[in-house]
Amino acid sequence: MTKFDDELTNGRFIISYCDRCHRSVWPPSTYCNICHEITSWKQGNEYGQIIEYSKKENYYFCLIQTKDDIRILGRITNSSEPKIGQNVQLESCSYDKKPIFLFKLL
Amino acid sequence: MRKVAVVGTGSSNFTKEEITVETLLLESTKQIFDTTKNLSQNLIDGVIVSTNDNSKYLSAILSELTGIKPKIAHTVEHLCSSGSNAVISAYSYIASGLADVILVSGADKINNPGQVLEWDKTRGEFNHPIFWGSMLTKSHKRKFDTSDEELAIVSAKNHKQAIDNPNAYSHKPHTISEIMNSKSVTDDLRILDCSYPCSGSTSVLLASENVASKFSDQPVWISGIGQKTNSASFAKNELTELTTSVIASRDAYKMAKTSASHIDVAEIHDAFTVCELMAVKDLGFSENISGADYVRNLFHTENRKINPRGGLIGAGHPLGATGIAQIMEITLQLQNKAKKRQVDRANKGLIHNMSAAATSSTVLILES
Questions:
Q1: A73 → closest Cβ in B118, B126, B185
Q2: What does DSSP assign to residue B206?
Q3: CA atoms of A6 and B364, how far apart (whole Å)
Q4: pLDDT tens-place string over residues B139-192
Q5: Closest C-alpha among B264, B225, B262, B207 to residue B364
Q6: CB of A17 within 8 Å of any CB in chain B?
Q7: Which residue on chain A is closest to B231 by alpha carbon?
Q8: pTM of the model
Q9: Which entry of A49, A69, B79, B240 is 20 to 30 Å from B30 by CA?
Q10: Is A74 close to B239, i.e. CB distance below 8 A?
Q11: ipTM
């Protein structure tokens, strides 16, 4: 388990950030993949937009770009069909052998 | 650099049975010994194994099981394109003069761990390939108005072509209607849109220009190589272009001093039906028409130019063996030994092998 996973287990979404480049480093890593400076952890921005989506059984799964300029595959908790570019908010996150991100449509 | 040729090939049947990776590797390697003239263990300088299996030290194990005592022995792992990358490692040893003859053997068993990249946190809970396959398919539909029928034609073509591949894991034809009405995996993928993992092994023997004629009267030369890795995580990918495939093919064409219009036959990485539609465009085959129109025309004219052995969808996808099976097929095609699958006047062929939603791609060009 990494710190990222540990925090997710406790319902907190954090990302690594390079204070020198002023950018998110994603997926999370100890060092910035541009300047190789050690990264710090910061609270991930919970708002984003839908880039693409599909549906499995009775739920939608989406590729989401958050306001930290990172992309995540997450599950939509609403039953209505999403739209490309629609705003979403991270409703909850957790970790059960793999990260789980639940978003609600705004 | 010295020229390098494929001078021997061998393959197990691809099957849904659970078979150990050591047994699989041995089976395709034995075929190389059975069918390659003048080959003896002491002539092999290197044994490279391609696999995603968790078993360790497999090149030494395969060497011991076959009585080879190689100078070079190691494993190559690169998910679905492990096989083509293992062949490029062997090519490099031979081209540089470090070796003259190398055996490359690829295998995976049906439940291999290469299907899920646990490191990739960007995929969240959706770490199975069907989820990136769905994203690419939905985006292709959105951008190119691709219909479910156009996707199903890829599967119908490749299942049909696999009937004449004795090593394919399935020899059952499927109509377009059957494919479109097969079990839904997601809203954008039917089960017959997907390739499936299986147990299987394929091996090739590579030799330098100094010794190739000793082993084969029809050596097939590796004339072009292109490789590109953009990332490991899916979420950074373009959704409507196989960007790494574009770059890898450009480099391979340049090295071989050729272009897509001169390729007679190609094995393409159809992990999902949408991948073939994207690849025929991104590799330059369907320059003036859409990928869907290009594949539809192949299907209706029974032209086997693309994926004559049935591709991953028709033949099965034992990850570590797939790239090598593609190379074996193009070798047989260029030697005019592909029997019912034979493409007329095949002198130049292309292999397209990629990993993890095309976060990386490998392209090889072979010539007779």
A1: B126
A2: E
A3: 43
A4: 999 999 999 999 999 999 999 999 999 999 999 999 999 999 999 999 999 999
A5: B225
A6: no
A7: A27
A8: 0.97
A9: B79
A10: no
A11: 0.96
